[in-house]
Structures are given as structure tokens and as C-alpha cells.
Amino acid sequence: MTDQDRHGASAHPHDDASAPRAEVFRGPTEPPEHAVAPERHPQAPEPGAWLGTHYDQCFGCGEQRPEGLHLRVAAGPGVSVTAEFKVAEAHQGAPGLIHGGLLSAAFDEVMGTVSWLLRVPAVTGRLETDFLKPVPVGRIVHLRAWCVGQAGRKFYHRAEARLDGPEGLLVAKAAALFVGVKLEHFVTHGRQEDVQAVLEDPQRYRSLRAFDVNP
Ligand SMILES: CCCCCCCCCCCCCC(=O)SCCNC(=O)CCNC(=O)[C@H](O)C(C)(C)COP(=O)(O)OP(=O)(O)OC[C@H]1O[C@@H](n2cnc3c(N)ncnc32)[C@H](O)[C@@H]1OP(=O)(O)O
């Protein structure tokens, strides 16, 4: 059976007149035509400044999670951040290699931290990862994430991971759609004992005030 037999008159399924048109295939992580360039908040930390953990129990950046990634994220130029972590024993999938889901988690964390420069609390709507090379235990993964566009509440981010430093071997790439939310999102949906603990801790509350200036 030929392609023509399978899909009617045309040789390719996407040539079928009843199939969705090309723009439908752009994908939800691609900024639409009307997207605007993201704006770095005037009070965002200077490039090079450490952004610190947003929550000490966070798997990505929290200091209190022994098995976590312990990402240290720094503001970069424009609307970008950089970060590094060391691949630990607890991060293995195949013997001696990082678990792919944890690399995606690292991307999620750094792209999530881009929100700090925009001063808009946002959560991941969609996250795509291209795994290009295996990543061994014991190596440093250097990450960079940046925002490529905004359309209303939707923020379009990109990220890359390189071995050992900013000029190292490119091992993975990611694209994501983040959706801006109100702080109520966290307060309403989080397990209440954890939410209360955060709200009652003045140190944590100070870091959350970064978001209050935003409409
Ligand atoms: C106590 C306080 C602590 C605070 C600490 C801060 C910590 C931060 C931590 C960060 C940690 C790291 C980060 C993490 O790990 S964040 C954790 C992982 N993410 C989540 O848990 C998010 C779960 N999802 C939701 O809550 C809702 O679905 C959201 C909020 C995302 C949207 O529901 P909402 O009802 O609000 O809005 P909407 O449905 O009208 O959608 C709005 C627009 O977005 C478009 N869209 C949505 N989803 C998708 C999709 N999948 N593909 C394509 N498009 C999508 C949608 O079509 C629409 O477009 P348009 O029709 O307008 O054109």
C-alpha cells in the first residue's frame, strides 16, 4: 500500500485538505505572532546577582532537600538566568547517568525562576525537553534559561543545558509555556500546613513580596 492509498489523493497526510493547517503545528511553546518581547522588571536583581531559593523544601533549589538538585540560580542579562548543579547518586536513571525526568525538572526550575526577573508568579503549563546526549553522574550541568515572548498571561521560555560550564557540550534543550497566576494559586491549592508555614515565616514572606508590585 502506498502513502497515496493510505491518505487519499495526496502523498503526505499533512497535505490532506481536511487536515489542520500549518500554523496548528507550531505548538503551544512557540510564541504566537502577537507575542511581545518580555520586559525585565526595573527592580529585578542585577545580572550576576544570586536569586536564592524561593522555598527551602523545593526539589529544584531548596536547601532542606538532601536529594534535591540544589540549583543556585543567578540573574543574567535581559530576561535570562543561569544555574548549575552537580549530578548526584540520587539523580540516576540508568547506571551512572542522570534520570531524564530530573533534567526536565532542572529545566522547569530555571525557567520558573525567569519569572523572578519579570516579577510575575507563573507556573508551568507545558514543558518540552530534547535530550541530546547522556549526562553522567558527578558532572556539573550548566543551565541557561530565557524568555522569548509574552502574550497576555502566557510566557514562552527556552533553556539549554551544557556539561561543566557555559561553553561545554550541549546535552539538552527545552521549551516551555508558563502561565502567570495570582499568589492565591499557591495559597489555595497547596497543602495547608505547608502554605501556613510559609506565610508565617517572615524571611520567606520577604522574598514573596517581590511579586506584590505586579498588577
Ligand atoms: C505561598 C505562596 C508561594 C509562592 C511561591 C512561588 C513558587 C513558584 C514555583 C515555580 C516552580 C517551578 C515551576 C513549576 O514546577 S510549577 C508546577 C507545575 N505546574 C502546575 O502545577 C500547573 C498546573 N496547571 C494549572 O494550575 C493550570 O492549568 C494553569 C494555571 C497553568 C492554567 O489555568 P488557568 O485557569 O489559570 O488558565 P487557562 O486554562 O485559561 O489558561 C490560560 C492560557 O494558557 C493556555 N494554556 C494553559 N495550559 C496550557 C498548556 N498545557 N498547553 C498550552 N496552552 C496552555 C490556555 O490555552 C490559555 O490560553 P488563551 O486561551 O488565554 O490563549
Automatic annotation (TrEMBL):
Its EC number is 3.1.2.2. It is a peripheral membrane protein. Residues 1-18, 31-43 have a biased composition (Basic and acidic residues). It comes from the Bacteria. It catalyses: dodecanoyl-CoA + H2O = dodecanoate + CoA + H(+); (5Z,8Z,11Z,14Z)-eicosatetraenoyl-CoA + H2O = (5Z,8Z,11Z,14Z)-eicosatetraenoate + CoA + H(+); octanoyl-CoA + H2O = octanoate + CoA + H(+); tetradecanoyl-CoA + H2O = tetradecanoate + CoA + H(+). InterPro entries: HotDog_dom_sf, THEM4/THEM5_acyl-CoA_thioest, Thioestr_dom. Residues 1-49 are annotated as: Disordered. Residues 96-164 form the Thioesterase domain. It is found in: Cell projection, Ruffle membrane; Cytoplasm; Membrane. Keywords: Apoptosis, Cell membrane, Cell projection, Cytoplasm, Fatty acid metabolism, Hydrolase, Lipid metabolism, Membrane, Transit peptide. It holds the Pfam family 4HBT. It is an enzyme of class 3 (hydrolase). GO terms for molecular function: hydrolase activity. Its main location: membrane. Transmembrane segments: none annotated. GO terms for biological process: fatty acid metabolic process. GO terms for cellular component: cytoplasm; membrane. PANTHER family: ACYL-COENZYME A THIOESTERASE THEM4. Belongs to the THEM4/THEM5 thioesterase family. This is Acyl-coenzyme A thioesterase THEM4. It comes from Actinospica durhamensis.
